[in-house]
């Protein structure tokens, strides 16, 4: 059977929160148990350098993200799980792709354009604070993807353009040199919710409205109590569709439990009671993983050994592919 190859990366600048869990980590781990797919998941630590100049944060985030995936049950004998910087062929391929990527293509990247626009609005030089890392970010991402001939790239909406750029760059290379790269496609799952944060906007570190994934029970309860509600009293009917607490509830509950809760809203359940039940629901789903997480975080040597095992597996692919690429472009031994 020819397996479908799925690949995705996580930039190592943050601490995983419930939005990452519901929108990306949980569905990715789930999909990795499908026998029809081969999964590649990696820590995008070179991407982290674009956003962060805090070495301690990048290191800590790499550790937290790796421990999170392991605690949540990723089977690293099935999925290839590695750290981008352990695969030197990725930065090598990035250079070759840089020589094949049109500057005009990268000028159109949303992240770069947003930075330029913000500068213009402030009356600054358009490229003020824009590093070459930010500008060529999509090329590094193309190398991540094309290196492993990945077909499906699960990403958030903000990353679709980058996957399309990877496809463009691959096409151009294949046309100019040799048919080496598989053309990747972004997959944005419509069924996985974009989770709302404490204030009802999308849960995101940039809005400072997140609920971190592995809080202690006490902190989790406190954090859930901060979710925005309104002033309706116990006994007054409440609109479930307009409620962040209900929205988060439905990301964790079965469909039966979701309809039951909808009924409770109509019957005027008290906000305090909804939040208590939400805490129990989320805590029930995460308690065992939380214990594993804290044990794994205390054992960096274990995390490191898992990543090294992943790097070995990944490099079987990347070394072979890079050899083809070097040969195709005329780099290498004369004999
Ligand atoms: N740029 C992605 C993000 O910020 C992370 C990432 C890096 C990635 N390389 C990738 C995602 C390759 C998918 C495929 O979310």
From the structure above, extract its key features.
binds tryptophan, 335 residues, 2 domains, globular, mainly alpha, Tyrosyl-Transfer RNA Synthetase, two-stranded parallel ribbon, Rossmann fold
Q: Which sheet architecture does the biggest sheet show?
A: 3 strands, parallel
Number of domains: 2
| The CATH class of the largest domain | Alpha Beta
Number of strands: 5
DSSP helical segment count: 14
Strand order of the largest sheet: 1-2-3
CATH architecture annotation of the largest domain = 3-Layer(aba) Sandwich
Question: What would the CATH topology of the largest domain be?
Answer: Rossmann fold
Rg, alpha carbons: 22 Å
- Report the helical percentage: 55-70%
What is the molecular shape?
Answer: globular
Order of helices and strands: EHEHHEHHHHHEHEHHHHH
* Measured distance between first and last alpha carbons: 38 Å
Mean pLDDT: 96
Unique bound compounds: tryptophan
- Based on secondary structure, the structural category is mainly alpha
- CATH homologous superfamily of the largest domain, by name? HUPs
State which percent range the strand residues make up: 5-15%
Low-confidence stretches: none
Structure description:
It is a single chain. The protein has helices at 18-32, 45-51, 55-71, 88-98, 103-107, 110-121, 132-135, 137-146, 160-176, 217-225, 244-252, 255-266, 271-297, 300-329; strands at residues 4-11, 37-44, 80-83, 152-154, 185-187. The two termini are 38 Å apart. It is mainly alpha-helical. The chain folds into two domains: 4-101 and 136-194 and 299-329, Rossmann fold; 214-295, Tyrosyl-Transfer RNA Synthetase. It is built from 14 helices and five strands. Helix 4 packs parallel to helix 14 and helix 10 packs antiparallel against helix 13. Strand 4, helix 9 and strand 5 form a beta-alpha-beta unit. The chain has a three-stranded parallel beta sheet. Tryptophan (TRP) binds at residues 7-9, 11, 44, 47, 141, 144-145, 153, 155, 159.
């Amino acid at each position: 059977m020819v397996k479908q190859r799925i690949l995705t990366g996580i930039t190592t600048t943050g601490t995983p929160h419930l939005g990452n869990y519901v929108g990306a980590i949980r569905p990715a781990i789930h999909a990795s148990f499908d026998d029809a797919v081969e999964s590649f998941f990696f820590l995008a630590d070179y991407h982290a350098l674009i956003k962060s100049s805090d070495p301690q944060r990048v290191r800590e985030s790499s550790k937290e993200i790796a421990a999170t995936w392991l605690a949540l049950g990723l089977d690293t004998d099935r999925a290839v799980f590695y750290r981008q910087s352990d695969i030197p062929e990725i930065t090598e391929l990035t250079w070759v792709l840089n020589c094949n990527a049109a500057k005009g293509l990268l000028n159109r990247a949303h992240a770069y354009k947003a930075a330029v626009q913000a500068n213009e609005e402030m009356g600054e030089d358009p490229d003020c604070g824009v590093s070459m890392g930010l500008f060529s970010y999509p090329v590094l991402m193309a190398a991540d993807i094309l290196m492993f001939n990945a077909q499906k790239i699960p990403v958030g909406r903000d990353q679709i353009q980058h996957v399309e750029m990877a496809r463009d760059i691959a096409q151009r290379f294949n046309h100019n040199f040799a048919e080496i790269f598989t053309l990747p496609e972004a997959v944005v799952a419509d069924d996985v919710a974009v989770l709302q944060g404490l204030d009802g906007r999308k849960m995101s570190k940039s809005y400072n409205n997140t609920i971190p994934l592995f809080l202690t029970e006490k902190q989790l309860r406190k954090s859930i109590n901060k979710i925005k509600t309104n002033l309706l009293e116990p006994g007054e009917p409440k609109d479930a569709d307009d409620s962040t607490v209900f929205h988060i509830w439905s990301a964790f509950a079965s469909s039966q439990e979701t309809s039951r809760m909808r009924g409770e809203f109509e019957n005027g359940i008290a906000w305090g009671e909804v939040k208590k039940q939400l805490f129990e629901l989320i805590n029930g789903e995460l308690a065992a993983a939380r214990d594993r997480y804290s044990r794994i975080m205390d054992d960096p040597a274990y995390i490191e050994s898992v990543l090294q095992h992943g790097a070995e597996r990944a490099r079987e692919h990347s070394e072979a592919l890079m050899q083809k690429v070097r040969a195709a472009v005329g780099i290498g031994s004369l004999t």
